[in-house]
Structures are given as structure tokens and as C-alpha cells.
């Protein structure tokens, strides 16, 4: 139930927010398509473009396969070893890459696997001569596994922990061995999740930008998004950029369509609520296997994080913190992140309010029901056009007006807002809906509307999820390099761009210090958002953020 004035205001504000988002994306795409479209169509399927498309799909397929195959034994081991020393901290460690800026994680991976990294140093000491190169397909796969294996483990572990305790009692009474247990109990629970996990990881890898930009190793290892960036930033070949952008949008649309058709997990199995106690895996061989899987996963994820910390602490942090370039980059990044997070919260508030208003009418007319469905899909619509494509469109649109860098801060803030919108909607909409069901009728009966309702009924309850969404949106914006890649310059510097430029200039110590500072700030923001929710909400928000 909602008062008439609140109803109209909510529908108008929600429609306006969705229209603004749609127009921002549509103008970027229209600018791409209208810039010499004939040349774009002629060059869209040449040999170079097809090679990039093949590599994009190839590396995404391999990354997805490795993430799932390597994550499965880790999830099984963590589910089986509930008394494993430090288990809760290992699970929390799996959440760290989710809140870590991609460029910071890439710096840690280079510190371990790079030419002067720990691995090659040990191999050289053993007599080999630089046998491993981090740049190229191998580096991209390692980086994608670093970021996506924890996601796979957490999602599969959640599915395994939903298996009722009665199943394990039955398995023990029947004397099931490891193979039978996996075949009849564990795999049925995981197999329902694997298609969705694989689709999500494939989508993330196919649209990867920062990792491929840093570790790609030249034209032989380039994805569509990186090729778009190179075509505009270095070659200034708008026709090539447009052709690649059209192909990227088509690929993203196909992937999102396939994700929508993937089977959803079945409903949770009914249980008597008995405590979860497993009786399998008591043998020495099973213990050694599980311990090895868990420890290897900890090393894979933990070593780059340790390398980031050690390298960052070795840098001259007091000097870096007072340098003018850092202060300017920090101020720019924080201002953009705060603006982006504010826009995210306001946009979500408007869209969710409009959906609630339409839902409060028992017999809403067909146009209003269509509006509600459109608003619900609007948050996912932004996934269709990657940040580099949006930046390319607005770069071409604003270039006739003069220096594009003048508009760069506002454009980066809006693009970051769009990228954080799906996460914020997943965090806020369940909390808003639950609150509306509890207090909607009471607020209407008391005549609360507008600012009075916001002050006395909404904010006292919803400030926690709002703060969580704000924190996550700020963390994502602070650590993003994709939106700023096209506009970064000496006059427009953000913290990720500062790390990237120092890495490109071989100022490794300064890059390590800046990466450490950026990583700590982003993790604190992400952890601050998570700490405001219960442990179950933490898991849901962590999964939604990726």
C-alpha cells in the first residue's frame, strides 16, 4: 500500500533514472555506429578481427575450465574437513580477490610469476635459465584462475553445505566409499551449480580488460576490449575501434542470452534439520589429498597477496604519500568514487521505489507491469556494453567539442556507476522489498510520505544495506582501470592509472607502494560493507559482486 503522491513520485523518479541510464548507453552506441558505419561493416570480419575473437573465446574457455577443475577438489576438501585448522580464515581468504582491484592483483601475480619473480628466481637458482614467461596466454590463465577460482570454490562450497545431514548418515550406514559418495551425493549437488558458475566465469574472462592489458604480451594475446583500447589510444583508428566494439557488444549479448537460458539450481532439499556431520574421508590418503588441495589453493591465492604486502612495505610509503602526483590522484579517485557511489545509491533507490510502487497496486495495468519488468531488467542491461565500449563511444561523441579530458572525470564516474549498478541492486532490492512488506501499510496509515517517511521509517532500517552498497560501489570505482584507460593523462590521473603508468615506466618500487595503498583502501571499503551484514549476507554479497 502506498499513498497516491508517493506512488506518482516513485514512478516518475524511477522512470527518469532508467531513462538517464538508457540514454547514456544509447548515445555511446549510436556514436559508434554512426561514425563511418560502412567502413566498420567492411572491416568487422577481417583476419585480424577474427584472430582476436578466437583468442578471446579460447582464453575464456581455458580459464573457465581451469577455474572449475581446480576449484572442485578445493571445495570438496573444505566441505569434508570442517575441522581443518584455520578453515574459516581460508574461506575468508577466498573473498579477498573479490574486493581486490584487478591491477593490484596483477601486480602481485607478476611479483610471484614474473621474470624477476619468486618462481623464476627459484628456478634460476636451481639451474634453469628463465624458463617461464608470465606474459601471454599463460599469464592470462594464471591471473584469471587467481581471481575466479575463489569464486568457484565459494559457490560450490555453499552448494555442498546445503546437503542435508541425513544424507551423510545414510551414506555411512550403507558403507559408501569415496567414489560412491561423490557420485550419488556430492556431484548431484554440484552439477546443478556448474552451468551457472561456468557461464559467469566465462563471461568475466571474455570481457576481461585490465589483466589482458597488463599480461597479454602483444597482438598474439589480445582480447576484443584491449584491441578497442589500442585502436583508439595508440593507433587512433576509429573504424577499427567501431568494428571491434560492435563485435564486443554482439558477443556480450550472446553470452548474456546464454546465461539467461542456463538451468537454475533446484530448490533446496527438505531436511529434518539435524546437525551436519560427515563420516567419510577418515583415511590417511583422503586426509593427505584434502590437505594438499587446500594448501595449494592457499598458496595460489595467498602468495600474490603476500608479495603485494611485502613489496608495498618495502617501498618508501611516507615519501609516496606526500608526493603531489599521489595526492592529486588520490583526490581524483576518491572524488570520482564518492560521486559514482552516490549516483549508484540514488539510482537504485529510484528504480526500486518505482518497482515497489507498481507492485503495491493489486491490479496494475499492462503498461505499468511492463514498466516494472523493464526497470528490473535495466540493472542487468548495463552488462551488455562493457566500460571500454562506453568510453569509446563517448570519446568519439565528445571529440568534436575539443579536449575530451575536460569531461573525463564525469564520464568515468558515470561509467563506474553503471558497472556497480547490478551489484548494488542485488544488495539493496531484497532489503527494500522486505522493509516495504513490513512497514508499507503502517506508513500509509500514519500518513507518512516523502521526506518524513524517508526519515522516520526507511533510513533507520535501510541505512545498513545502503552503506554496504555505497562501500562496495566506492571500492569498485577506486580500483577500476577500464573506464579511465582511454582518458588517463598527465592532467587526469587516478590511483589505478598511477599504478599502471609506474609499471609501464619500470618504476617498480613506486608501483608496489601505490598498489599496496590502493589495495588496502579498497579492501577496507569492501570489508566495511560486509561487516554491516550477517555472515550469510556476506556470502550473498560477495557472490553478487563478481
Beta percentage is under 5%
C-alpha termini separation: 35 Å
Largest sheet: none
| Alpha-carbon Rg, integer | 25 Å
Mean of pLDDT:
81
SSE arrangement, N to C:
HHHHHHHHHHHHHHHHHHHHHHHH
What shape does the CA trace take? globular
Q: Please report the number of helical segments.
A: 24
What is the SS-derived class?
A: mainly alpha
Portion in helices: over 70%
Number of strands: 0
Low-confidence stretches: 531-546
How would you sum up this structure, described in words?
- The structure is a single chain.
- By secondary structure, the chain is mainly alpha-helical.
- 76% of the residues lie in helices and 0% in strands.
- It contains 24 helices and no strands.
- The longest helix is centred in the C-terminal third of the chain and has 38 residues, at 408-445.
- Residues 531-546 have low confidence and may be disordered.
Strand and helix layout:
Elements (H helix, E strand, L loop, with lengths): L3 H31 L2 H7 L3 H34 L6 H7 L2 H4 L2 H12 L4 H8 L11 H25 L3 H10 L3 H14 L2 H13 L3 H6 L8 H10 L4 H24 L22 H31 L2 H6 L1 H36 L6 H16 L5 H12 L9 H38 L4 H29 L16 H10 L3 H23 L4 H11 L1
Give the tags.
mainly alpha; 24 helices; globular
Amino acid at each position: 500500500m502506498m499513498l497516491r503522491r508517493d506512488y506518482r513520485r516513485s514512478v516518475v523518479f524511477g522512470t527518469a533514472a532508467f531513462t538517464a541510464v538508457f540514454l547514456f548507453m544509447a548515445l555511446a552506441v549510436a556514436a559508434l555506429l554512426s561514425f563511418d558505419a560502412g567502413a566498420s561493416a567492411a572491416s568487422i570480419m577481417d583476419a585480424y578481427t577474427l584472430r582476436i575473437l578466437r583468442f578471446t573465446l579460447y582464453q575464456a574457455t581455458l580459464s573457465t575450465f581451469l577455474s572449475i577443475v581446480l576449484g572442485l577438489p578445493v571445495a570438496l576438501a573444505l566441505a569434508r574437513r570442517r575441522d581443518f585448522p584455520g578453515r574459516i580464515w581460508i574461506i575468508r581468504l577466498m573473498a579477498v580477490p573479490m574486493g581486490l582491484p584487478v591491477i593490484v592483483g596483477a601486480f602481485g601475480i607478476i611479483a610471484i610469476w614474473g621474470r624477476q619473480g619468486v618462481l623464476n628466481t627459484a628456478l634460476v637458482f636451481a639451474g634453469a635459465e628463465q624458463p617461464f614467461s608470465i606474459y601471454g596466454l599463460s599469464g592470462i590463465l594464471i591471473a584469471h584462475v587467481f581471481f575466479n577460482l575463489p569464486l568457484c570454490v565459494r559457490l560450490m562450497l555453499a552448494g555442498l553445505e546445503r546437503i542435508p545431514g541425513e544424507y551423510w548418515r545414510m551414506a555411512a550406514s550403507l558403507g559408501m566409499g569415496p567414489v560412491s559418495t561423490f557420485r550419488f551425493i556430492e556431484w548431484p549437488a554440484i552439477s546443478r551449480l556448474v552451468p551457472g558458475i561456468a557461464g559467469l566465469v566465462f563471461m568475466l574472462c571474455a570481457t576481461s580488460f585490465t589483466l589482458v592489458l597488463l599480461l597479454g604480451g602483444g597482438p598474439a594475446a589480445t582480447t576484443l576490449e584491449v584491441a578497442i583500447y589500442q585502436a583508439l589510444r595508440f593507433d587512433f583508428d576509429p573504424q577499427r575501434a567501431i568494428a571491434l566494439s560492435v563485435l564486443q557488444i554482439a558477443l556480450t549479448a550472446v553470452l548474456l542470452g546464454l546465461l539467461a537460458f542456463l538451468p537454475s539450481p533446484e530448490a533446496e532439499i527438505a531436511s529434518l534439520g539435524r546437525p551436519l556431520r560427515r563420516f567419510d574421508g577418515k583415511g590417511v590418503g583422503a586426509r593427505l589429498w584434502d590437505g594438499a588441495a587446500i594448501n595449494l589453493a592457499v598458496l595460489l591465492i595467498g602468495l600474490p597477496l603476500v608479495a603485494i604486502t611485502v613489496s608495498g612495505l618495502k617501498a618508501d610509503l611516507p615519501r609516496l604519500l606526500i608526493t603531489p602526483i599521489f595526492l592529486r590522484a588520490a583526490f581524483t579517485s576518491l572524488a570520482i568514487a564518492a560521486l559514482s557511489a552516490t549516483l549508484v545509491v540514488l539510482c537504485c533507490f529510484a528504480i526500486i521505489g518505482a518497482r515497489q510502487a507498481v507492485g503495491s497496486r493489486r491490479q496494475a495495468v499492462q503498461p505499468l507491469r511492463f514498466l516494472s519488468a523493464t526497470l528490473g531488467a535495466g540493472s542487468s542491461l548495463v552488462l551488455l556494453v562493457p566500460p571500454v565500449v562506453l568510453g569509446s563511444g563517448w570519446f568519439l561523441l565528445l571529440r568534436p567539442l575539443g579536449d575530451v579530458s575536460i569531461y573525463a572525470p564525469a564520464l568515468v564516474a558515470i561509467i563506474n556507476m553503471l558497472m556497480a549498478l547490478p551489484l548494488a541492486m542485488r544488495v539493496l532490492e531484497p532489503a527494500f522489498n522486505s522493509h516495504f512488506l513490513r512497514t508499507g501499510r503502517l506508513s500509509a496509515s500514519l500518513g507518512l510520505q516523502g521526506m518524513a517517511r524517508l526519515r522516520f521509517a526507511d533510513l533507520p532500517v535501510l541505512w545498513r544495506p545502503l552503506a554496504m552498497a555505497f562501500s562496495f560501489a566506492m571500492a569498485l570505482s577506486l580500483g577500476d582501470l577500464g573506464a579511465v584507460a582511454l582518458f588517463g593523462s598527465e592532467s587526469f590521473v587516478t590511483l589505478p592509472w598511477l599504478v599502471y603508468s609506474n609499471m609501464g615506466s619500470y618504476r617498480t618500487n613506486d608501483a608496489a607502494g601505490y598498489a599496496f595503498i590502493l589495495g588496502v583502501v579498497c579492501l577496507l571499503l569492501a570489508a566495511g560493507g560486509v561487516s554491516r551484514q550477517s555472515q550469510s549476507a556476506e556470502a550473498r554479497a560477495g557472490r553478487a559482486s563478481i
